[in-house]
Amino acid sequence: IFSRLERLEILSSKEPPNKRQNARLRVDQLKYDVQHLQTALRNFQHRRHAREQQERQREELLSRTFTTNDSDTTIPMDESLQFNSSLQKVHNGMDDLILDGHNILDGLRTQRLTLKGTQKKILDIANMLGLSNTVMRLIEKRAFQDKYFMIAM
């Protein structure tokens, strides 16, 4: 068919100029019809093949003899159980780490309050001893600088 269409296309180009356009249009229409018919044929063959395959599978299923389950039918749960227990251990370990971090932060807060109270008492004692405000400001400045020094280390 395709070779005939190519031959027709060559012949249409040899037509006189006034008939050439009409001849090409008819050849193009024939090409389109051939492609359309080929597509329809492929679709038909595909549907027929699918229907035959379904019938074959249906016959296989109907002719098959079913038996009880073998003793080999088991579910591999050992790996799942080990994975689950590992996840639970990791979860518990993370909870312990979070609890330890919380306890450390609480201890630091308590130490901070204790040190603030001690600093206030020392300043009160220094004030009672009559140290000047200048000396007390120098002591506070030194404590502030020591704090930055400790953070840097």
TrEMBL record:
<dbReference type="Pfam" id="PF12352">
    <property type="entry name" value="V-SNARE_C"/>
</dbReference>
<keyword id="KW-0256">Endoplasmic reticulum</keyword>
<keyword id="KW-0007">Acetylation</keyword>
<keyword id="KW-0812">Transmembrane</keyword>
<comment type="function">
    <text>Involved in transport of proteins from the cis/medial-Golgi to the trans-Golgi network.</text>
</comment>
<dbReference type="GO" id="GO:0015031">
    <property type="term" value="P:protein transport"/>
</dbReference>
<dbReference type="GO" id="GO:0005829">
    <property type="term" value="C:cytosol"/>
</dbReference>
<comment type="similarity">
    <text>Belongs to the GOSR2 family.</text>
</comment>
<dbReference type="GO" id="GO:0005654">
    <property type="term" value="C:nucleoplasm"/>
</dbReference>
<dbReference type="GO" id="GO:0005794">
    <property type="term" value="C:Golgi apparatus"/>
</dbReference>
<keyword id="KW-0333">Golgi apparatus</keyword>
<protein>
    <recommendedName>
        <fullName>Golgi SNAP receptor complex member 2</fullName>
    </recommendedName>
</protein>
<keyword id="KW-0175">Coiled coil</keyword>
<dbReference type="GO" id="GO:0005789">
    <property type="term" value="C:endoplasmic reticulum membrane"/>
</dbReference>
<keyword id="KW-0472">Membrane</keyword>
<dbReference type="GO" id="GO:0016192">
    <property type="term" value="P:vesicle-mediated transport"/>
</dbReference>
<keyword id="KW-0653">Protein transport</keyword>
<keyword id="KW-0813">Transport</keyword>
<dbReference type="InterPro" id="IPR027027">
    <property type="entry name" value="GOSR2/Membrin/Bos1"/>
</dbReference>
<keyword id="KW-1133">Transmembrane helix</keyword>
<dbReference type="GO" id="GO:0005484">
    <property type="term" value="F:SNAP receptor activity"/>
</dbReference>
